[in-house]
Amino acid sequence: MTRLQRLAGGTILAGIGLGMATGASAATVCFAFQDLETEFWVAGHRAITSTLAEAGHTVIERNANEDANRQLEQVRDCIAQGVDGIILIPQDGESAVTIVAEAQDNDVPIAVFNRPPSDLSRGIIVVADNATIAEQAVDFIAEQALAAAGPDEVLNAIIIVGDLGDPNAIGRKDGFYAAMAKHEGRFNITEVASQWDAATALANLEAAVTANPDVDLLFTSSDFLFPTIRSVFEPRGMWKTVGEEGHVWMAGLDGDATACQLIQTGFVDATGVQDLFFEAEASLNAILAAIEAGEAQPNEVVQDPGFALTTANFGEREMDMWGCVLLADGFLDK
Amino acid sequence: MTANVPAGADPRPEPVRDRALPRSSGRRIGDILFSDYFVLYLSIAYFLALIPFLPTLSTPANLANLLSNMWPLLVVAIGQTFVLTIAGIDLSQGAVAGLTSVAAALLLATAAPVAVLGNAPVWGVFLGETGGLLAGAPGATTIGVALILLIGGLIGLANGLAVAVLRMPAFMVTLVTMIAVGAFAIWLTQSNNIRDLPDNFIALGKGTLVSLYFGEAETSEVARRALHAFVTWPMIIALGVAVAAHIALNRTVFGRYVFAIGINRKTAEISGVPVRRVIVTVFVISAVCAAIASILYTARLETGRPTLGSGNFLLDVIGATVIGGTSLFGGKAKIVWTFFGVLFFVLLSNTLNLMNLSAFHIDMVKGGVILAAAFLDVTRTRLMLERTP
């Protein structure tokens, strides 16, 4: 049995255990997601759908294809179909507020997975502490970069920010600046906008690196942008492993398989890890418990504390990161 | 063709129908095919055929959803109908919707978070922590809506002038407008959405006038879930736009001019039709319709969104219009056709959702149906000409 299967199995057993403990009958759950454009969402989608199906629940899937209006219509369709509960990955924090209200007004419990509404007071919200996780990851690379530099040397740092309509992106940006604030005057910071879009990130990062090729440190708000960063850095001789002359200290956030591989090979130094399997399990448990209890408007915030996987703790915590589990199971070879 | 096209009808010659003679089944099928109500018949048949397989389809909750999804799309499709009738196309409607959605928020928002919007170029100019320019002002929503329509109208005016005066192709002009206006909307808020719109504005997209309850009155309290909105403000607004558009297109001299230009612009010019003025007006109508639809979408999502109208928005708008029977070649359109086209398109989307198909499969099916509608348009036109003595 592979590690992924064991983890998924654990999630399934937890779901079944919850069902047995509460006597939950088979429920119909609508799983409305905005798209599956990154490893995180693909793995999250797989964990949620397979766990629900294995536990005997019916899953109605709705892919909004990154259209908030379409997602609202899809959720309304789910409600019309008489689903018992909804698990939502919203397009953004603002549309999430409207959709959560729509579900609750119609007495359907709803859980929001990972991307929180801008108003956390309604619905079951499962969210990572993005600011703290980002701060931990950036702390590590900032200290490494400063240790390798001269005592009064001012270094150049880049942050690739996400779509600031997404509260996760704001948290990650705040975490980066909290880490930088501990080393006042030691870093010149350049912000590069990505809007969670690889093409936008590519264009803006190329412009930033062309304007100032002397980059010492880079933090990307999501691991899915590492291939984009590589495509900009490699032709300029900036894609170096740790210990090589010209290595750029790099950290990301998500904890995907690509980031795990890049830490293994020494190109990336740290990444903030969201515990995908914990978040999936927490969403499922909370929504199934609400269905079983007949609770139509459950409100709860479940925090995923997360952690930073670095080259320093890689040996001990590698398999706590979902991306490394996927990598070990050959995810990137499929 | 002259400017004296009969108002209220397809200006092309009606097929001869000899009712005294017994008609073959082929001719009967032809009659249905040429009927104004063909798409309505198709929608009813499709609906009835699927009820045994999709029991949710005919539930009051689903019917309420169908209607709710129909109204904003109908408004924007009506605007596109005018443009297609003059043998043009307006690709900028989605971008107009995005920009006017942002404009609505910049004018009417009652609060805005500095953490999200502090870096936007509009911060401190149009928007602050206390909201937009008109926040708290008396009659803010009325003034805001008027300004939103004005912004839409100005974009339409620019499109119309480029097409009519500079004689540039509508496809190219509106493509450029789509790109430029869409990018401008995103730049204004740096791609961020703006919430905290006033309640009376939100009511334009979600306000209900009549809700229905289907069931026995056993208790004095009815669960919110059991109440279904049927008469809503979006319905009133969309039907109002539809009636006004029907009168303009089928009951006025302006409408005759629109058809005349669509059939043959050169001939219309020679016949004395004020071609430039009509083309400009048509593009203004199209953009204003997009702005009205934007108000409905913005209000139902309770958020000003610069990306509103991106993605498959145009596919839905042009698809619904063409399915209704409006010709891509110009000169053939009715608002009632567009109404039926939107009805069928929304019904199609709804049933594909109820079949639990993926978004990719749904878009593939939609694309196929639009292609079939375009083919049907060509076939209908050819058969109509063959029937004409």
What is the topological layout?
The complex is a heterodimer of chains A (334) and B (389).
Chain A: H1 3-22, E1 28-33, H2 39-54, E2 58-63, H3 68-80, E3 85-89, H4 93-105, E4 110-113, E5 124-128, H5 130-148, E6 155-161, H6 167-181, E7 187-193, H7 198-211, E8 217-220, H8 226-233, E9 249-254, H9 257-265, E10 270-273, H10 276-293, E11 300-304, E12 307-310, H11 314-317, H12 322-328
Parallel strand pairs in A: 1-2, 1-3, 3-4, 4-5, 5-11, 6-7, 6-8, 8-9, 9-10
Antiparallel strand pairs in A: 10-12
Helix pairs in contact in A: 1-2, 1-10, 2-10, 3-4, 5-6, 7-8, 9-12
Chain B: H1 25-34, H2 38-50, H3 60-85, H4 93-108, H5 114-117, H6 140-164, H7 170-189, H8 199-206, E1 208-213, E2 227-232, H9 233-250, H10 253-263, H11 265-270, H12 275-301, H13 313-324, H14 335-354, H15 359-387
Antiparallel strand pairs in B: 1-2
Helix pairs in contact in B: 2-14, 3-9, 3-12, 3-13, 3-14, 4-6, 4-7, 4-12, 6-7, 6-12, 8-12, 9-10, 10-12, 13-14, 13-15
